Amino acid sequence: MAKISRKRKAVFFSIVSIFLVILFVSTTSMLSKSRMKESEMEVTRTRVRIMNSMINDLEEVYFEKMLYIAAKNSLIGLSSYYADDYFDSNVVQKRIEYALNDVIHEGVLKERDGTPVNLTKMGYIDFNYTIKGMMKNISDLFSTMGVEVKEFNITIPANSVRQVDPWNIQVTADIKYYFADKNRLASWKGFTTKTVNISVIGLYAYDYENGPKSNIGIITGEWKRDNGTQITEPTIVNKLSGSPFVFGRGICVSYCQES
Amino acid sequence: MREKKMRKKAYFFLMDGIFSIVILTIGFLIISSNKLQPGEELHLSIAAENTMNIFSSVRVNELCDESCNCSIRKLQDYCYRNIILNKEQTLLDTLGELYFRNRKDDAGMLFDNITSEGDLFRKDLFEMEFRINKEKIYPDEDLTQMKAESFELISSKKIIYGYYENALTGQVTFWGPYMAEVDVWRK
Known about the structure:
By secondary structure, chain A is an alpha+beta fold. Chain A has helices spanning 2-84, 96-106, 131-144, 236-240, and strands at 108-110, 116-118, 147-155, 161-165, 168-181, 187-199, 204-205, 217-218, 224-225, 251-252.
């Protein structure tokens, strides 16, 4: 009888110790699992935080710079293309904002009849610094971090290109973007309007109007503002729009000659 | 008498089991508390993000006047020597532009000088590495081993691109986009 009782007790203690070991092992594995989940969540949080800061940066600083670079690249290309064809009215068919809206995306100017003129293929515009070219390069960098560029669009509305002073052209554009994480953790969608003042240095100027053909060439910092009592030199925006009217003061190679 | 002896043995085994569980639990708690505290991780994160934010938000013309008097020694030197061509861009863009113009050593020295004079992080506690397009710009020495052995490493990234113009010739040069990265870890 005593033998049976002893055996029962031994079995009981064995069960209790096995139970304790199982309890300990399961608690340990649960804790390590929860810690793994916690660190996974921390990695995700860090990733989203890094991406958030990058997208904020793009919106606050780099969209503006992107607009500046793409618009300047386009204006340099357009002015050189127009200059090579003597600013002929057959060439300058559109006001600058419409021409800029055409070429800023991938360097293709649409003539009034719809014929496309590819200024990147003709060597006037650097494709890498058009919106499409820049977005391609930025998408490549983003994809290394697992982010996809779903949409990126820049539109230059009517009357949003103007000459603010002889040295600067102001361009305003609407920017729509949609970036998404490849693991579908987060996405960033937005719309913003940016305004930049683009220096006219580097653009090609030409006297297309009647009068002395003197202000020809790439504009440098050495050019002089038209300070005469009578305004004789049209602004660069005027010239690039093919407008025969003189609005605002332009710049000349050495000095602006009064007629 | 025998039953009493048996009971004693049972208590002894039970106490032994409980003690072993207590010892194992204490050991487990000691090992688990050995991981990096969230506070330290936060310090690393702040150091990395502060550095990137300062470099990407401060423009050269905010630190230098028209006559190249700058609050950072190296920046003043580069401004006088016309190494900096676009004063309107940020410090991070300036580093990107120097990288584009194949002046990686100048970029590294400028990064070192700004982080030292600006007291951006404690060099006695943290180690920092700055890269553009995966190429190491700062520091000069190889820290790969030290970085691999660090418990925690925080990284911050930004995309950079820009332009500079030569006012005398009217030539405009665009550069980028590049990926700028800062890694910070505890020494």
